[in-house]
Amino acid sequence: MSALRGFAVLLAGVPLVAVRAMAAAAEPLSAAGISVGKDGSLSVPMQIVILLTLLTLLPAAVMSITPFLRIVVVLHFLRQALGTQSTPSNQVLLGLALFLTIVIIQPVAADMYHQGWEPMEAGRLTPQQAMDQGAKPLRNFLLRFAREKDIRLFVEIAHSPPPRAPADLDLKVLIPAYILSELKTGFQIGAVLFLPFLVIDLVVASVTLSVGMVQLPPVMISAPFKIILFVLVDGWNLVVGSLMKSFYS
Q1: Which has the closest alpha carbon to 197: 173, 174, 226, 168?
Q2: Which stretches does DSSP call E strand in 147-216?
Q3: What are phi and psi of 88, to 5 degrees?
Q4: Beta partners for residue 36, in sequence order
Q5: Model pLDDT for residues 42-72, shown as the tens digit of each residue
Q6: Are 53 and 59 in contact (CB under 8 A)?
């Protein structure tokens, strides 16, 4: 139940995005002849259309701006290093990555909900103010893991003025910088995971060639040894534990 509650909190930021998008869309849609209320709000059918459209972007957001990106990259590298082809399956790896992501991102999502959605629901903040307040925890999270080099790259690409402080960075700069940084980190961890299994492959290949077993692929012989080594050192505990700790260091 706690995991389900964490997933619900993770999705709590979606209404804030929807409200902002609906408010921004009201003026141009009104000019196009689409029904807009007297106070500038969109009609209910149009709100539903926009909300459903935003929900289609939710999987991409979960995969890109959360720890899910680094975790799933490392797990796929691990599977390739073990040489087990499709075991564990993609569904298992994605499920593990999703629930590990919920554990890490739940405090951030809870802060976004409490600072943005709750005050707006109580009438203390306007939708725009709620978006600004709700984005602060996410911005702080992205700043922790986005490299300065990647941030500088996207500031130059976006032709944005240099920020006076990290808190002045726009999310349109922080999000792609965070994605690049997480991809690099995931590849670095994956390369380290490959090394011990690569040594086993080299040893097995040398032995099989020296005894003349050229017709038997070395991968078929090395796979059981790699799996046994991984099980003996309690590899899943080590990999997952190291991944989780990398977000709290």
Answers
A1: 226
A2: none
A3: -65, 155
A4: 42
A5: 567 777 777 788 778 777 877 888 889 899 9
A6: no
